[in-house]
């Protein structure tokens, strides 16, 4: 709870920085503040206190995901430091990012549908603007507009769903709804199920599961690379946490209603996202499809056992977030000012800058699921869980799609090592080199000691 | 008295709603729509829902209608520039609206049972709402300020020109 206040406060401080003229110190203040917020999360561990009439509950699940969001934001601020070097709107951008993080924290810790809605809106509205923050670039404008239209449409679905669920149960508290559903199993009105399905659609938009993923590739490609990195880590973590929370508590007892639908969504997500990613020429767009594809594996774990899958999903997301941050960090460096991320631009990267190339390679191998990197353990945990729950056909589908994944990740790796360099060596600042080494170390540490995170939940 | 007021408001509402459709000038249509919204707000007050009435006037009659008027004036719509609508289009519109009417009447016929359940007195008063909002829903109320702040910062950021150098 205090972590949330710290983050909101940091957002307001960064607005004040514009007036009071301490822009130079702003990023350091934000990083210190986020570290403080992380410390507060650790201090609250194992407490599970409900705040303000049960509006927010910070149990271990919420705290773990909040910690993951804060941790990835910290790393993100490091990867995206160039994003704040621009001449204009430094403080506005950092304020919006901080508000988005606050929205993400609300989405992991809500205990009331009103808080869920507010969290999603704070996160989304900040991102609509950030997606369009390269104002002179048409692609960025398109991304912002598309994201705004699709996002408000999805919010409409979600809100309609919440209204119907409220009409059927008479409460916004998710625990009370769960109890009501349990005790009134046979006598729920049919519009309750309609509400649950509308919420499923709204949240599927937010986690960008197929067939509600159409906004994702265009928005990811058009936005500034730094913002794309933010979307594919922090935003994804928050969206999946809220999805899990709603469907593992509120609608857990009516699982038969949404199970088949989610199963279809999961298979479609795995197959369509991974196959479409093969045909992409832009690495950024390919990573966008791959991030849609990763949602499929998370859904597979969720479907295998929606009550017990939180540890697996948490580890998968942590592994995915670190690898994605490393990949997008390298993308920012390679893309340069014009943000050109075609595969050809990666030709001979190993000769141009070995550190960036090795960092990107490890990130991509982890995303592809090659042992001993954490992406492999994430996938292994998901598959083991699915096999234990008798979902062998779906595991086969997932394994085939992850093999397709290996193919398109290796296209970039082959370009980096075996193609001739097209440009002069890539100069990278020391801070970025340190960052890449740190990210490689975190990735390897997660791969070698996966137990540490799995046992948290 | 209340019943007479209800009939009067209903008459005004239906009349102005019809005028919205039948008036040739789009600006008149919007003005008639404002009257419709005011009469509906009157209905809310008759139903003891003061807050809903006030919000209805502020949001619909105030904000949204001003937006409508702006759009109409910006596009310079008037009788001459209005595109000619073919008969088949009118026919299709009548069928669509008729179907909507059937659905609405059908659903409203089934609501009698629900109306009897919610008999809590004073549920629509501003005071009741304020008590809920500042006690139980205090946190969402406060967090909304963050949402509005984010939206404002975003609007300024998108709207502010980056061409001039004198701002930094």
Automatic annotation (TrEMBL), chain A:
Q: Where in or outside the cell?
A: Cell membrane; Endomembrane system; Membrane
Give the catalysed reaction(s), semicolon-separated.
a quinone + NADH + 5 H(+)(in) = a quinol + NAD(+) + 4 H(+)(out)
Q: Cross-referenced InterPro entries, in alphabetical order?
A: NADH-Q_OxRdtase_suN/2 (IPR010096), ND/Mrp_TM (IPR001750)
Return the Pfam families for the record: Proton_antipo_M
Q: What is this protein called?
A: NADH-quinone oxidoreductase subunit N
Family classification = Belongs to the complex I subunit 2 family.
Please provide, alphabetically and separated by semicolons, the GO molecular function terms listed in this UniProt record. Answer: NADH dehydrogenase (quinone) (non-electrogenic) activity; NADH dehydrogenase (ubiquinone) activity; quinone binding
Top EC group? translocase
**Assembly description:** NDH-1 is composed of 14 different subunits. Subunits NuoA, H, J, K, L, M, N constitute the membrane sector of the complex.
Task: Report membrane topology.
Answer: Multi-pass membrane protein
Q: What is its EC number?
A: 7.1.1.-
This protein's GO cellular component annotations are: endomembrane system; plasma membrane
Q: Which organism is it from?
A: Pseudochryseolinea flava
Pinpoint the NADH:quinone oxidoreductase/Mrp antiporter transmembrane domain residues: 111-404
Q: Where are the transmembrane segments?
A: 27-45, 57-78, 98-131, 143-166, 191-214, 226-244, 256-279, 315-334, 355-371, 391-410, 434-454
Tell me which NCBIfam families the record gives: NDH_I_N (TIGR01770)
